[in-house]
UniProtKB/TrEMBL annotation:
Membrane topology of the entry: Peripheral membrane protein
Subcellular location: Golgi apparatus membrane
Name by which UniProt lists this protein: Conserved oligomeric Golgi complex subunit 8
Cellular component, GO annotation: Golgi membrane; Golgi transport complex
BP-aspect Gene Ontology terms: intra-Golgi vesicle-mediated transport; protein transport
Top-level division of the source organism's lineage: Eukaryota
Location (main, coarse): Golgi
Family designation: Belongs to the COG8 family.
Keywords, ordered alphabetically: Golgi apparatus, Membrane, Protein transport, Transport
Length: 89
């Protein structure tokens, strides 16, 4: 992935879900879904806060826009796909 902070986030979520997969009780599915949603909201809030508090140069602005686009087009759908089997059970 082109943006290491987003890769770290996805890797952390994937690792956590992989650890839970073999032994998580079904009663945790809503808790897991809620926590993942909170994590995605925290990333979104951080990006918004960064955008409103920083003056970026053009090249930095383009890179930040690319980061935001990757979050919306890659990270969010990937996390939704990881969550989907949890919600279906």
């Amino acid at each position: 992935m082109e943006h290491p902070p987003l890769a770290v986030f996805i890797n952390g979520v994937s690792a956590a879900l992989n650890e839970l997969r073999p032994c998580a009780p079904l009663s945790l599915k809503n808790v897991i879904a809620h926590e993942l949603i909170k994590g995605l909201q925290a990333v979104s809030d951080s990006l918004l806060r960064y955008n409103t508090t920083r003056m970026l140069r053009l090249n930095e602005s383009n890179l930040f826009l690319s980061l935001c686009r990757a979050f919306v087009e890659v990270v969010f759908p990937h996390c939704a796909n990881m969550l989907w089997p949890v919600v279906l059970v």
